[in-house]
Each structure stands twice: as structure tokens, then as C-alpha cells.
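Fig. S4 source data, part A: sequence.
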Amino acid sequence: MMETILKKRERHPDEILTEDSILRRTTEVARPIFFSTLIIITAYLPLFAFEHIEKKLFTPMAYTVGYALLGALAVALFLIPGLAFYAYRKPRKIYHNRWLEKLGEIYHRQIVALLDKPKRVLLPLLVILVAAGVLSYTVGKDFLPPLDEGAIWIQVQLPPGISIEKSKEMGAELRKAVKQFDEVSYVMTQVGRDDEGAEAFSLSHIECGVGLKPYDTWKFGKTKADLIEEMSETLSTMPGYTVSFSQPIIDMVMDQIAGAHSDLAIKVYGDDITDTRHIADKVVNVLRAIPGAADVAIDQEPPLPQLQIVADRDRIAQYGLNFSDVADMIELAIGGKAISQIFVGSKSYDVICRFDDASRDTPESIGNLLLTNGAGAKIPLSQVAEVKMTTGASTISREMNKRHLTIHINLRGVDLTEFLNKANRLIDKEVSYNHDTVHLQWAGQFENQNRAYKRLAAVVPLALGIMLLLLFAACGKFRQAALMMCVVPLALFGGMLALNVRGMTLNVSSAVGFIALIGVAIQNGVIMISHINNLRSRDRGFKQSIITGAKHRFRPILMTATVAVLGLLPASLSTGIGSDVQRPLATVIVYGLLFATVITLYVLPALYYLVEKHYLDEDAGAVNPEEPTA
């Protein structure tokens, strides 16, 4: 809006601008401004379809951008014309940016040369389109970029069946080892289950919270990933410690989502605990061999020694005993039984009786415990039951009433999709099991990624369809609306190239960046093509209208892109806490917009010329058909 009024003043610096002239200029650009703003708002519609974590992160952004654009539209249509008229209505000297004018002259000459041979753009366009497809295939796919919380959370598994005293001792050794790193500010450990009892951890499990000093106090160039790698190497040399690294918040979130304290988990369902454990061990060995897999282990403790007492009902009846006599003896001797109560004020305490340690510390001594039948005869427990030591599961996990084991995996230096593809391929090849009784299921970030991508796959085409209808309403010709939509796959090239070059992944954050990029790219196309159509309606020459329209819209398109790039460049380069979500989004917009601007300025006029000339030639042939020759 400001550009078109400023153009009027630059062309007639010595004339007084009238309200009618400003009104005519305003109405010329009001329609494309209105529709281009609606198109950008429409581009953000997919963000309203998000769920769970991604909804919390990005839906507020969609509301903010939508309301901000509506406010900007109102300002552009109703406030800017009045302010511009007040500022430029009297004759005045206009400042001219010499560098920008030189760029405009260069661009004008290039457009004139390009329209002499417009088909020259087709081969570069085809190359860009193929390159965009290749880059989209090679880029890594993830759910969200790793979010740095400024702390480390370590899950530590100790040898099963450990005593509380030994567990506390090993916890102290763990704190001492971790505190030796200069970057660590504090270390705290918690043995066993948490205070709320939400986790069924045994005494052989330790959760360790590690606080970190500010990053600007670290050695130059050292990152949190480097610190985790050093910690992992140090703790791997300490016998009895199996560790996995995460962060406090995401550890809790992943536990709620997938039931595992890791980025990714695979659950092995089966009724036979022994067989399920055997298959899970094979899967662990396969996963550990895949590059990028870290902290691979089975969540549930391995089988522990167990004392089994198997009663023989026939022998019990033969000796004149009841099964309850055997059960009561075992309860009293080994577990202990309340025989009385002591009252202290308003409180009562049970008095527990059980056999001393010497009478119950071995299977033999337990087998020698005596039972008394109705005749007063003493019968050793070993005569009516088999007392033996064996191994068995210490915990049995169930989900949806099905037994399962959970294998947790953290990913380092590899994207989620690439790892899953490799893991599935190797598991199918190297792990054999009965698919009727046992089945494997992935959980964790994988579920979030699938859910978010399915939503986008359903909603983005719908949004593109609405944008196509808005473009048709803006220009009145379906071919021109389709022409502006053709910019979309070409604009993706810059963003995909930036993700590949910077080693980033295609995730929900970068997908939001592409959504914003599509809206801006189409907006620039609307501004240019609507102005060209407006010039053609004034009976200017077809080719001259394209050249003049491209030249007139060079400055506003260039300025729009420059402001957006400079505004988001710091976000695309930032590395501080909280920048992880915005960095991929900003990277896509910054580098994608650079390529999208070039495409809009050069490719769109050439394509417009080719498409419209084709229809003009057809119309001319229909009006003046060739006379048939005799």
C-alpha cells in the first residue's frame, strides 16, 4: 500500500496529490492485499489441527499470527492511505536509494532479456524441482528437534536384588563420579520408587538429576552432547552401572506417552515370560549394532533367584494335614504374622512373630520346619512340599491386560525415521519368533511423529485447495491461480537445501516453517500478477505490461523478503536454551525465502508470459481463422 502511493509521488514530485488520485491507487492494490493476507492466514490452518505436544507449542503461534495479520490488514487498508496522503500530498523532494535504484535497473534489463527467450527458465526449473524432490528424500525425519532443558536426567540400573545399603553406597559413588565434571553444578540421586509411588522401581534403580552451569562458562566449543558422551564413557567403566541419559521434563513426558524413559521404545508382547525375555535379548543385540543407538536396555529387571515351595496335596492329605496348615506355617516362619497389638496413646502397632534367620536362611532349613497334625505327629515340611531354589521374573509388566517387556533406546546423531527403517529391516532379518504368540510394537516419539504427520497430510492439501480458490477469486482465471500455486514446490527447494546443509531434520517445527514460507511465496506472486493484470487492463502492450509490472513490484517484494530474512536470521543461528524449537522454523523461512524471492522475481514473469501468450495465440487463431486454400 505504501509502495504504490510512494510511486505516485516519485513520478510527480512537483504536483499536489489529490484524494481521488490516492483513492484510485488504494483501490488498485486493496484487492491483492486483501486476498494475499487471507492466503497467509489460510496457510496457518494446519497448525490448528495439531494435538498433544505440538499443539501446545505451535497453535498459540497460529492464533498470534492470524490476529496480527488481520490487524495488519486493517492498518494497510484504512490507516496507511490516510497517513501516506498526509505525508506526501504536498510537493516535496523524495529520497532515492541509489543502490536500490541500480538493482532495479539491473533487474529491468534482465527481465527484458529473459522475456525475449522465456523458455530458458524451464530447464533450471526442472532441475530445481528434481533437486527439491531429492533433498526431501534425503533429509532426516523427526518429530521435534531435541529441546535443551539446561539439565541432565540419568536413569541408572544397578544389579538386581541389591540391598538398600549397597544401593545407597553405589548412589554415593555415582554422585562423586558425575560431580567431577567441571560443567556440573549439582548432582542428586533418588533410590527406588518415587515419593508418589507412580513408578514401580526397585532398590536397584536410581534416578539422578544433574544440574549444569551456564553454557558461557564452559570450555570453548564444548556442547551438552559432548558432556553426555564423556559422562557415558566414564560411567561405562564403573562395574554394576547401566545408565541412560535424558532430561527431566522430556523423561517424564515420554514415560507418560510411551511408558519408557527414552526417546524410543519397542514393546515385546507375549504370554510366556521366558520366551519373551529371550526374544527381547535378541532385539537388544540387534539394536545395539545400529549406528546412533544409545542406552539400549530392557526396562524390566532380569530373572532373580527365587525360593519356590510346591505343595503336594496328596502327601498333605496322607499325613492328615490341610493345605491351610502348610500355608500358615510358611507365612509364620518366613513372612511373619501378627500375634498381638501394642497401643501407644491413640496409635496401635502389630507384634510380629517369625522364625529366626538360622531356621529359614536355606532351602534345607526351611524343609526341616515341622508341621503338627491332628494326632500330634511332627512332619517336616519337606515331606509334604518340594522346597527349591530357582529363577523367575521379579516384575511382570502388563498393558491392555497383556504381558510385555519394554526395550528403551535413545538416539544420538541419527534421525528417527532413518533409525526406524534400519531397525525394522534388521529385526525382521535376524530375530525369528512366532508372530502368532509374540508381537513387537514401537512406542515413543515414533507415535507422536506418525500422528503429527498424518494430521498434516490430511489438512495441508485442504489448506492448499482453499488457497487455490482464493487465488482464483483474486485473479479471476484458474490458469493464473494454478500458476501461482506452482511456486509452492519450487519454494520448498531453499528450505530443504538449508536443512540438509545444516544437518537438521524435517520435523514439526521445520514443517511449520514451510507452511509460513508457502504463504509468503504465494503472497508475492499475488502482488506481482495482480499488478501485471491491472496494467494489461489499461491497454498497455502484453509484453510491456509484464516488464513494467515486474519492475514496479521489484522493490516491495525485495523489501518484504529482506525484512523477513533479517528478522529471522538471529533465530536461525541462535543456540541458547529455548532456541531449539524456533531454529528449524527460522532456518526454513530464511533460506527458503531467499530462493522463493528469486523464483518470484524471475521465474513467475517468464511463466506468466509463456502461459498467457499461449492463450492469446489461441484466441487470435479463433478470431482470425486461416482461409482454406483451393
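Fig. S4 source data, part B ends here. The mean pLDDT is 79.
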